[in-house]
Write a structure and sequence with these properties.
The protein is an alpha+beta fold. It contains two helices and three strands. Helix 1 packs antiparallel against helix 2.
Amino acid sequence: MSFDMNKMLKEAQRMQEELAKAQEEAAKEVVEASAGGGMVTVKANGAGELVSISIDPRAIDPDDPELLADMVLAAVNEALRAAHDLMQSKMSGLLPGDLGNLGLPGI
């Protein structure tokens, strides 16, 4: 049985192209998360970038800015987790074994 370096390189290039395509597709998808019963809503794309933050005016209490900050933080973290999960789902199956977790930051 002989080892075919060209075949291996072509397969690696094909896998790299598939990974790039999956990352591009995920970057175009948007996930949404909210906190405070929907008072704060955050959208993020599959690339882990925040797309928008919406705050219901009723959430703005000048006497309790910490509550609003907590709601924004909770919604942002959940949106980023959802974006990470989206990317993971796009990448799963493209890499052999446990390599699918390489290169993706944990959130």
